[in-house]
Amino acid sequence: MNIVEVKNIKKKFGETEVIDDISFNVKEGETLVILGPSGSGKSTILRCINNLEKIDCGNIIINNNAMIKEYKKNNPIYNDKKILKEINLDTGMVFQDFNLFPHLTVKENISEALKYVLKKSKKEIEDIVDNVLKKMDLSTKANSYPCDLSGGQKQRVGIARCLALDPKLICMDEPTSSLDSELVGEVLNVIKNLTKEKKTMIIVTHEIKFAEEIADRIIFMADGKIVEEGSSSEVIKNPKQLRTKQFLKRYIDIKEKSMEKLDIKNEEPYDVLKYFKEISDIPRKSGNEKEIRNYLVNFALERNLEVLTDKYYNVIIRKEASSKTRENDYLAFQAHTDMICEKEEWSNHNFEKDPIELIKDGDFIKANGTTLGADNGIGVAFMLALLNSKKINIPNLECIFTVQEETTMDGARYIDTSLIKSKKIISLDNSKEGKMVISSANCMEWFGKIEKEYIELAGLNTYELKYSNFPGGHSGGNIADKKRGNPIKLGVQILSKIDGIYINNISGGSAVNIIPRNFKIEFSCKNDNEEFIRSEINKQLAFYGSNVEIKLEKIKNNMKVLNLDISKKILNFINSYENGALKFDQKGNQILSANLGTIKEFDDFIQFEYSLRSNNTVLKNSYIKNLNQNIEDNDVSIIWSQELYGFEPDYDSNLEKEINQLYKELFGKDMELLITQGVLEGGFFKNKINDLEYICIGAEIFDAHSPSERVSIKSLQRTWKFIKEICRKI
Ligand code: ADP
Ligand code: MG
Q: Is the whole-model pTM more than 0.70?
């Protein structure tokens, strides 16, 4: 017999559909587990079943009582009070945050509904409370208040309170996710025992192993829909849908590794980690740097150090040379205070207010499901450790803390460089130990537009050519990898070889600095071209591998198309545009690259977004000359949207030589010199300070900008030694 029947329910909050046509049943004695990323609608479903939230469509039947009596003008009319009361008595809910009354004892919390709702006698209540407390192993806590209980005990009271009413159905919404990890087990155990007693339950949880063990059936949902449903071994061991696989993979990866919270007391370099921990407690999303600015200013004032700050929240802290003999030596270090904020789907982290939780995983420090902010918090921590130390022999030190490096670069762009006395700046924003960045790219971004002109057309066939699942990647770092491909260019390459293509619509890509992952073009042409297009597609598929998708499909004829001239210009412009990694220096460093990032349609025009990265002005200028020709040939109007400054390699730099020498003395090998197509803040400093020498070093950080970001502790130790040596000797 079904205790619960959920039939095609829908639920909107405002305009957003949170539950989108969900149906499932739960049989008597069955345990159903609902899995899914946060925000997918799991709690909302439980709340609808418990009548804590009203549904917009469909019906919910609990123990043969329907919640909705009828529909009037598409509006649900809820059933009579009497029936709803029965439904309420048949359903019980255990909440993530326990929801206990703080002013009542454990016993009173449990008795409350027995007394006032079920109107049980005193004696009956005594018996029931004793019984459920025993079951939850809480007999000794009957007279305690919630504040005197551990999280695990509180949740067991929550479960006891639910059991006391003996509902036909028990719903639990992430019953262990508010608990410290060491308390999770005791709660999972009592739930496990309930499944043995054949209680009918719906449980929302992120404990995948537990789910696998207890569930008779599992539903995986995402975006308000059921993505996959089956036995626990089907869904967890052999998920069929990509979405389920991705969710489970991330989850199991993280949870199955034994990880411990980082305890800096036992770690070296303690001085650096101490400050890294302190700043990790401060939310530092780009554009939100006021709090870290305040922290830095206080840090300086507490140590009697000179500190300067500006309206952008940049900070400069100065410290005098350790000895008279060094009073003419100046050296600056630089790092940015902001960080990229990315998290795993399951993470509830709030980047506006939560501290980053540091975890130790072998030689690595990482965060719990979020970016770590080692990029560039480790640089900040190195500087704070230098500024704090009384022992390290330093020249006149200037520590420059910039903001918004990850977004607009406004910190470096607007910082008043007249305040900086040093002609040598060592940036700590490199994530490759043993390597020194000596040049970063100048990056120019621009929009191009082609005006649309439509004609009516009959007698041709219409097709959709669609590219999806291309790997994409960063327009600076990944563009030399030919296997990534640019689907916009690839599609256009094929169609440019055919005469008489009329474009209906065209779109692709997601952002100017990301290699596009998809492209779609609808076009009309004579049907005898189809075979040729298919054979070209097959060649591309053979090259780009089995993960990508390229599909040609005949679709309903579209009579309204762009005229032949405009269609040709669009194809010709894209096809002639030089894209990808274009030039390399003798050592194989990429020094010129371009990315066609997006193509979008607007009412009157088609818009392209491009970026150009160069580490060499001559190459850049010659590229722009070719581009201008292409623009002119195809009547494209363009707007340069922004320029981020780069800096070219300076092979005569003394700073570079000195640093390399010190490195060699310490570690027995030369540093590798890097020319990056990424944009560093150095370009802005070099642009504003004459004769500035600027290089960039750092400790080994992996997977920056993603929740897998991690920094090697051993690398931190070596890099810290190196930085102290630089201070001593330079
Ligand atoms: P889950 O439990 O799977 O994390 P929820 O059911 O809590 O998801 O939420 C699903 C979506 O509905 C989320 O986008 C959430 O922000 C939104 N939502 C939930 N409750 C409300 C509410 N009372 N008002 C507006 N939006 C809500
Ligand atoms: Mg929830």
A: no
